[in-house]
Amino acid sequence: xxxxxxxxxxxxxxxxxxxxxxxxxxxxxxxxxxxxxxxxxxxxxxxxxxxxxxxxxxxxxxxxxxxxxxxxxxxxxxxxxxxxxxxxxxxxxxxxxxxxxxxxxxxxxxxxxxxxxxxxxxxxxxxxxxxxxxxxxxxxxxxxxxxxxxxxxxxxxxxxxxxxxxxxxxxxxxxxxxxxxxxxxxxxxxxxxxxxxxxxxxxxxxxxxxxxxxxxxxxxxxxxxxxxxxxxxxxxxxxxxxxxxxxxxxxxxxxxxxxxxxxxxxxxxxxxxxxxxxxxxxxxxxxxxxxxxxxxxxxxxxxxxxxxxxxxxxxxxxxxxxxxxxxxxxxxxxxxxxxxxxxxxxxxxxxxxxxxxxxxxxxxxxxxxxxxxxxxxxxxxxxxxxxxxxxxxxxxxxxxxxxxxxxxxxxxxxxxxxxxxxxxxxxxxxxxxxxxxxxxxxxxxxxxxxxxxxxxxxxxxxxxxxxxxxxxxxxxxxxxxxxxxxxxxxxxxxxxxxxxxxxxxxxxxxxxxxxxxxxxxxxxxxxxxxxxxxxxxxxxxxxxxxxxxxxxxxxxxxxxxxxxxxxxxxxxxxxxxxxxxxxxxxxxxxxxxxxxxxxxxxxxxxxxxxxxxxxxxxxxxxxxxxxxxxxxxxxxxxxxxxxxxxxxxxxxxxxxxxxxxxxxxxxxxxxxxxxxxxxxxxxxxxxxxxxxxxxxxxxxxxxxxxxxxxxxxxxxxxxxxxxxxxxxxxxxxxxxxxxxxxxxxxxxxxxxxxxxxxxxxxxxxxxxxxxxxxxxxxxxxxxxxxxxxxxxxxxxxxxxxxxxxxxxxxxxxxxxxxxxxxxxxxxxxxxxxxxxxxxxxxxxxxxxxxxxxxxxxxxxxxxxxxxxxxxxxxxxxxxxxxxxxxxxxxxxxxxxxxxxxxxxxxxxxxxxxxxxxxxxxxxxxxxxxxxxxxxxxxxx
Length: 940
Description:
Layout: H1 2-5, H2 8-15, E1 26-29, E2 37-40, H3 42-51, H4 62-68, E3 81-82, E4 85-86, H5 96-103, H6 113-120, H7 124-133, H8 140-156, H9 160-179, H10 187-199, H11 207-220, H12 229-241, H13 247-250, H14 255-263, H15 268-280, H16 287-302, H17 311-321, H18 331-340, H19 350-363, H20 370-383, H21 387-393, H22 402-413, H23 416-419, H24 424-435, H25 440-455, H26 459-463, H27 468-480, H28 488-504, H29 511-524, H30 536-544, H31 551-567, H32 575-601, H33 606-617, H34 622-625, H35 628-635, H36 647-660, H37 665-677, H38 684-697, H39 705-716, H40 723-735, H41 741-747, H42 750-762, H43 769-787, H44 798-807, H45 814-827, E5 833-838, E6 844-851, E7 857-858, E8 871-878, E9 883-884, E10 887-891, H46 893-904, E11 907-913, H47 914-917, H48 925-936
Parallel strand pairs: 8-11
Antiparallel strand pairs: 1-2, 3-4, 5-6, 6-7, 6-8, 9-10
């Protein structure tokens, strides 16, 4: 069919133009037997907008990255991705079972003698001699089988020179002979030949390749021909193999076959081949196809067709479902497929095991897979100690084993052999960051090696922007260390490379790439005038590209600015910087408004809102946080439906709600329901995120069942969680009066205290982390002593509180000073109230007033015998951040817990809120005096 309206030469020239484009396509494809169908490729754009929203932090999909040869800047895991699937190393050696499958791919064993000889070849030399020996007797079948055999030997060949010889000699010879039989081959032969020739890097413009593809497409689009799923999958992989065709154009009519084969999918092999097809047709896959495929796979899982006996099929399905553009929609099925792998985890080969670990770590479900994966990857590490296996094992290891792993990392980072392994810098970075190593010498060793690579980088590598991965890693690394670690050499080199790309490279004109480049320059900026302003070119390009930025781009830009204000302008912001920040503020606000208007017109998801909220959460500009767009974004959470929650979504939402103090009861209740309904799947770290978030916001679930399940999950995952997470979770359960005795016993024991001390020694930010952990332990100790006196946990934090109070310098705010003035006026003497009182358990009270039985204020009593005859009144001054962002009456959890505990200690607690004190009706002094009298119930 294609050959009727396009000559070979035309086909050859057109294929050069079939590159991925960002514009809308409208292409007419003819069908010989049926009516003409017009495939409008605007649908592709609309599908991608709906199914693959920019809201996901994995905004650069695996497929797009494969097309562009780039990695996502937003994924910490920098595993290489090839054509939508994941490659963990460059060793593509064909395994024995695959070799046997390829040998018998098309032709059965019962064939002529030449075919038997070809199949029996064990080396390239044998094949080469055999083909030239029987040159005159070779037929179509022999040539195609020889191509498949050549692929086996070429792929296993370690010698570059030998590979080149194969290309020049035998491959060209087979191509010449194959051209004579193009008109005779069927779709299976055409797809097989095309695939293996493409894998052997034969140019797509070669006449035989053009003829093969034309023949294959004609056969696929001929309704009189049967095209089986195997041939279809081979052809699609062949087309996408070189990343130089725009598959939606030439594969549009393949969709009809996908519909048909989804309906007839009965075996695990059908499922595997369909996964390959759908993966390679990703831009054309809509909701209907994806959902139909997922339903079929779910059915096959339920009836046991897909199970642990076919792990390779499950992993193929996982790779397809987990690509960034739609993985957030497939979480339930991904979780079920991962759970199905549990019985065979220990038997998985190394690459498959790493693949499963990567997917599990991203989705954080199902929890039942954690222990077997931890054991399997530990065994792999003991047999193959490499940067890659270490990086995969660290997230699974128990906290007390980190010392040994740090020593392993030291040996690897100092080993030249380790750095020669594929993707070594990414794996070593993952391990370094996950281990939270605070040894400056080790950090310097890693970044010095990266600096050497950057200095020695070729022009091709620089033009391909491979240095951007190091920009991304360094910014994350520096953030983790709170700005305490700097490697000036890396910053200077990367800043120079980034600014050069922005000024002179075409990539500096592509919005999402510019945002990544500009983010690093904003953050570390080693240009001549960095002490007083950002480079002018950044501002001009931000203004020019304003209409094209996505929320993810805005997030990257704001994050870079945030780092710069923390590192370079913390104490004083130069006037020029202030002017530039005002300009950036208006651009980012307009981008947020535009995106909000867009999602209002369509159905938006939690994924969209999480991404947009994250932009505001990390933004460095106060005006943007106070903008209308910011509050509109948060308000959208009240309208969105929570039908398909998962651990990844919950983690993002919990972070956003905790950072913004925004209360959405229906979503928080949905989180607790998720715990109740998914006890066996949800992990302890996810439960801790939920509990910390809801405690921070002061929200109490409707049912206690979720809290009981949370306790069981924490006990189940106790040894895998870090001390800080466990303490935070227990403090939240204390707030809900739902902390079980077993958990109290496990936390308040010598082993756990020693475990926390070891973690503090290993922490990455010794300026803040130790004090944060110790302060939370103090709060937990206090809560348990007051709420669970029957557990007999001793109060052992008084020395810590005394030390903290001695270091704390007193600062009297204008709010406190103003209230104190009016209290003095009302009570007529300062001796009738006590300021800044500290209770035995370390609670600070702004003002304490004692009243006698006649409700008259008295001076603070000295004799303890009088305490039963007086009333202690504690006045707490509550600032705006004591309440939720969107509800000035919703007291947050820590403040509520403080009130409860003070009441348990015999205080009557009263509040004076900042928003009331400075409201319009409290503008005059007399109103404030009357307010104080009314609060204290003083009549005169």
